[in-house]
Amino acid sequence: MNTVTGDTIISGLNWRYATKKFDSTRTIPDDLWSQLEEVLRLTPSSFGLQPWKFFVVKNPELRAKLQGASWGQAQVVEASHLVVFAVKHNLSAADIDKLVTSTSNTRGVPAEKLEGYRNIMLGFVNPMEVEKKDNWSARQVYIALGQFMTAAALMGIDTCPMEGLDPVKYNEILGLNELGYHAVVACPAGYRSADDRNANLAKVRYPLNEVVQHL
Ligand SMILES: Cc1cc2nc3c(=O)[nH]c(=O)nc-3n(C[C@H](O)[C@H](O)[C@H](O)COP(=O)(O)O)c2cc1C
């Protein structure tokens, strides 16, 4: 692995901000976008269940409709790319079996040897109410969002995490219910407009000794 310095990461994190105004004339090149999709794919999840799908919305008509379901926020239509982070609705035994099969194939381990692991997952997931399951999955989708924004920043790509949206309308517009997914959060990505005033605002963060405590 090629390491990057902590200074590089901190400088990237200071450079990133929730971009309000994107330069709609600039597009993220395909090779960089493919890498960002790989960043999403590599997100870790509890048990490795990957209870999500990342919908990359390219269609301008859909993007315009989504803007109407996002408090009119212009980033949804102006950014080069838009990712809608969605959870697999109501995880079931089939999702657990899919992971067991994938693990067995990837690692060359007979599925029978993974029976104990399978039962632990079933014992954890099955008793949960549907809403609790979806909330649990949503918490994991946010790990993907954080990883995506950080990686993008280190690549010089701007993002804006967006919870200011109506997930029910997102599901309708994108037909996610039919696919078995529920929208959670969105993230436009692209390049900041030269006149986005937010780009130059000082970061508002509490002091280290307030947010990190050594025990
Ligand atoms: C989960 C989440 C949801 C957010 N939703 C929105 C949003 O809908 N629209 C927006 O402009 N900013 C949104 N933000 C951006 C925050 O306001 C911003 O990250 C915060 O004020 C810190 O500023 P910074 O990201 O520029 O450092 C959201 C941030 C997070 C993490």
Q: Proportion of β residues?
A: 5-15%
Q: What is the rounded distance between the termini? A: 32 Å
Shape: globular
H-E string: HHEHHEHHHEHHEH
Structural class: alpha+beta
Helix content: 40-55%
The radius of gyration is: 19 Å
| Count of DSSP-assigned helices | 10
Strand order of the largest sheet: 1-2-4-3
Ligand inventory: flavin mononucleotide
Write down how many β-strands occur, each being a DSSP E stretch of 2 or more residues: 4
**Largest beta sheet, briefly?**
4 strands, antiparallel
Low-confidence stretches: none
Blueprint of the fold:
Elements (H helix, E strand, L loop, with lengths): L5 H10 L14 H12 L10 E5 L3 H9 L6 H4 L2 E8 L4 H15 L7 H11 L4 H25 L3 E2 L7 H8 L1 H4 L1 E10 L17 H4 L4
Antiparallel strand pairs: 1-2, 2-4, 3-4
The chain binds flavin mononucleotide.
Give a verbal description of the structure:
The chain is an alpha+beta fold and 215 residues long. Helix content is 47%, strand content 12%. Helix 2 packs antiparallel against helix 7. The radius of gyration is 19 Å and the shape is globular. The two termini are 32 Å apart. The site of flavin mononucleotide has 11 residues, from loops.
Quick summary of this structure?
The protein has helices at residues 6-15, 30-41, 60-68, 75-78, 93-107, 115-125, 130-154, 167-174, 176-179, 208-211, and strands spanning 52-56, 81-88, 158-159, 181-190.
